[in-house]
Amino acid sequence: MTMPVTNGIIVVDGADSIALDVHDDGTLSGTLTVRREGLYRIMLESFDGRMVVGSPDYFIDALDDQPPAIRFKKPGRDIKVTPIEEALVEVWAEDDYGLQALRVIYSVNGGPEDTLPLFDGTRGTKEMSATHTFYLEEFNLEPGDLVSYYGQVTDNNRVGGRQTVTTDIYFLDVRPFGRDYRQADQGGGGGGGGGDGLDGQFSQQQRQIVAATFKMARDRDDYADKEYRENMATLALSQGRLRERVEAVVRRIQDRGVMGADSGFQKIMVELPAAAEEMLASEEELGERDAREALSPAQRALQHLQRAEAAFREVQVSMGGGGGGGGGQTPNAEDLADLFELELDKMQNQYESVQRGQQEQVDQELDATLQKLQELARRQQQENERMRRRAGNLQNQVGGGGQGQRQLAEEAEELSRQLERLAREQSLDGLMDSARRLQEAADAMRRAAANRNGDMSEAQSALDRLQEARRMLERGRSERLERDVQDALRRAERLIEQQDRMTDAVERLGGSQQRQSEALQDITEQKDGLANQVEELEADLDEMSRDWRREQAEAARALGEAAGSIRDNRLADKIRYSKGVVRQRTPEYARNFEEQIGADFEELRDRIAAAAGAIEEEDSDQRIGDLLEDTRGLVRDLESLDERIQERTDGQQGQQGQQGQQGQQGQQGQQGQQGQQGQQGQGQGQQGQQQGGGQQDQQGGRGGDRGFNRSPTAGGFGGFRQDDIRQFRGEFRERAEDLDALRQRMRSEGIDVSTLSDVLARLRQLDSRAMFDDPAEIARLQRAAIEGLKEFEYALRRELQGADSDRLLLSGSDEVPEGFKELVEEYYRALSNKNR
Q: Quick check: bond before 75 cis, omega within 30?
């Protein structure tokens, strides 16, 4: 106050009042619980007892609690592993209130789920990164088995209620090891043909059904009843169609009698019917709209399909690899490959068409969002200029002017929700980062709207966050071309593979009239599908060429030439015409015609590959900006690891402290009883006290500096369990590898990374079993590594921005490492003294 006052109140929305406490130093304080948006002002009691206005009206902006964010940083996709591999997964989570729990939940072959608690939130952390290594040798897996896993995070909002968010489901697919050696050892033939056609395509379809079923179970409350019923009906239909495909292959194998006595064929005929049976169970549960119950049989069906595919690949290897030009493959293997690949090609083509259509819709929505975001940033810049002009006018400051900021905040929050929805639906981590930046911008806008003292920091922070979100989306758009070109290249490669198999099928025509009729029918179906795929690819190449003509001129020209080669060679017409050639012309004529089609496909592939090579690399500024962001990310990862280790040691200390208290209480009771028994009992009581004191010293940890025991239950190393030691060592090893890779990338950009050697040495030193006998030393090394990395990143950021004032302002500039904080504080004290 500018003069002593004896009383004061907070008036909320002109009605409710809250008393202020008057303190000895003349300040007043009170507590306001924010339940809704509104206004408040301060009223003070003057010397004559009247209540006078002591402040302008201030806005109250109630910020909604946002759900926590969670994603897998590594591997972030399905991966193939061997049965004895160590598979590391890394999960990241963040929340505005703070995290209450972070866990990974996994299941082996669709069995019961197990939960791995990674963080229990006792220390109120808002951001956390954690890893877990699956030691697959302990699961006794075989090729074709799978481990499914997903992450789950719960926030710490005890007021409005905790919110839980779950990631998508991911898979570790077990593949055979030593396959390449066996194939070389047994001297296979050329090509690859049949076996490659079965590399996960049936299982790919089933995996998509499992993932969609998991999402429906996870997001049930987000769907209206009608939408949920429609989605479940679609899933049941998809599961039924896949089951029919598998059953069709089983019937045709039985009809053609290609099974023989080979153990690989026999295993295929065991696994495929088992997969169909599990699919039927899943289909029935989906039909009854119970996604959670459908999940286990769907995963078991996936396991059986993968085992069948693994057995088929073993058959291909043992029979010489086959495909291409025959390669010594037996008729049974060729027939089996044909049966699988015909069904797989049909499904793959349908699946890819649907996927491309969905991706196109997402791309269009992202383009529209980017335009809105660019407009939002422009308007925020204008709002900042207006705020600067008002800064010198006290009357305007008091009178308000925050409504424009609130409107912008609402629009930013709406865009954030759109991006978050897309991120969850499409499993795109970059979109989730952009959504968080937009929400941060909206919060800063609301704080700027409530600010009446002319401080521009929040408004500028809002603009910075908007620009960061825009750059992230633009970077994603530039990556889209590379993604689409690579997709086109894969499609061209698949067309070549299908054409090679078709050429082989044409050469093998013969046998009985019925057998030849079936083969011709299969070839006709495949050629129709092939021609349709060629026409779709031509249209997509033309569209890419048009869309990227301004931003990537050379790549767009090459894409246009690729589409032109399809038209010039009349590729689709040739494929359709070749159906009659196979039926009516000589085998030699038909073979030459098929080879010409194959040559046209190879020309198409080469032109698309040229377009991929013509895509311009990102500029140096962008690469260095990415390196700095990766450095900040590594700092956060190390801080998370330090947090979890400290949490674990605090928990151990708490448990041991309880044990010590229990021991002390037991001693006191024992002494009391012994005191009533006479002198001899007193002596025994003293002896018991000494023993109890020794036990307390050991269990309570008060007899040493570290506070940890060496009991067998604790694992014998500083109170850490054996599994904790194994997991933490693995994470230190991973962080050291991340830093080493980051050093190499920085060195290639001409950045001096000599100061990172000490940081890397400390991280490698932490990957030691003996180190976990001394938690205090672990903490010291960790903090030294974190501070060293922070100082490197901060100094490099300042150097880059100082070298070029027009350089892009990189995010994170407000984070100051410990070594610089005192200088920054002294700087602001000097400014304050000068103004005073």
A: yes
Give the contacts of 574 (CB within 8 A, at least 6 positions apart).
593, 596, 597, 600
- 206, amino acid identity: Q
Q: How far apart are CA 143 and CA 152, in angstroms?
A: 28
81 beta partners: 174
> Along the chain (836 residues), what's the average pLDDT of each consecutive run of 10 residues?
85 85 88 84 86 84 79 86 89 85 91 89 78 90 88 84 87 71 36 39 83 88 86 88 85 66 70 90 89 90 87 62 41 50 53 56 75 82 76 48 76 80 67 79 78 68 80 73 84 86 75 66 79 87 84 84 89 85 77 86 89 70 75 88 81 54 51 45 42 38 33 48 87 90 86 86 85 83 88 80 44 54 69 57
φ, ψ at 583 (rounded to 5°): -80, -30
Q: Are 796 and 729 in contact (CB under 8 A)?
A: no
Distance CA 630, CA 517 (A): 60
pTM here is 0.66
Q: Position of tokens 């093998």?
A: 508
Write b or e for each residue in 615-636: b if 16 or more Cβ atoms lie within 10 A of its Cβ, otherwise e. beeeeeeeebbebbbbbbebbb
Which helix (H) or strand (E) segment holds residue 205: the answer is: helix 201-218
Euclidean distance between CA atoms 657 and 664, whole angstroms = 11
Q: Quick check: 111 and 90 in contact, CB under 8 A?
A: no
How far is CA 125 from each of CA 100, 118, 147, 644, rounded to the nearest angstrom?
8, 13, 30, 10
Q: What's the CA gap between 819 and 511, in Å, rounded?
A: 83
Compute the residue count for the chain.
Answer: 836
Nearest by Cα to 124 from 569, 643, 763: 643
Cβ proximity of 315 and 216 under 8 Å: no
Q: Please, are residues 652 and 708 in contact by the beta-carbon 8 Å criterion?
A: yes
Q: Give the integer Cα–Cα distance in Å for 152 and 701.
A: 35
pLDDT of residue 819: 62
pLDDT at position 280: 92
Residue type, 776: A
- The residues near 757 (Cβ < 8 Å, ≥ 6 apart) are none
At 400, phi and psi to the nearest 5? 115, -140
| Axis crossing angle, helix 571-584 with helix 553-568, rounded to the nearest 10 | 30
Output the pLDDT for position 151: 92
Asked whether 80 and 170 are in contact (CB, 8 A), the reply is no
One-letter amino acid of 766: L
Amino acid letter, residue 413: E
- Rounded to a whole number, what is the largest CA-CA distance in the chain? 118
Q: What does the block give as tokens for 223?
A: 């769907």
Contact 509, 527 (CB under 8 A): no
Cα 431 versus chain centre, distance: 11
In sequence order, what are the beta bridge partners of 79? 172
Give CA–CA dist 422/379, Å, rounded. 25
Q: Which residue has the tokens 């339940």?
A: 35
3-class secondary structure, 62: coil
User: In Å, how far from its chain's centre is CA 560?
Assistant: 35
Name the one residue in this structure whose structure tokens are 């494929």: 575
Amino acid at 162: R
C-alpha to C-alpha distances, 274 to 107, 336, 628, 723, nearest whole angstrom: 20, 18, 51, 36
Can you give the three-state secondary structure of 218-249, one letter per residue? HCHHHCCHHHHHHHHHHHHHHHHHHHHHHHHH
pLDDT for the residue 426: 64
Q: Which residues pair with 174 in a beta bridge?
A: 81
146 φ/ψ angles, rounded to the nearest 5 degrees: -150, 150
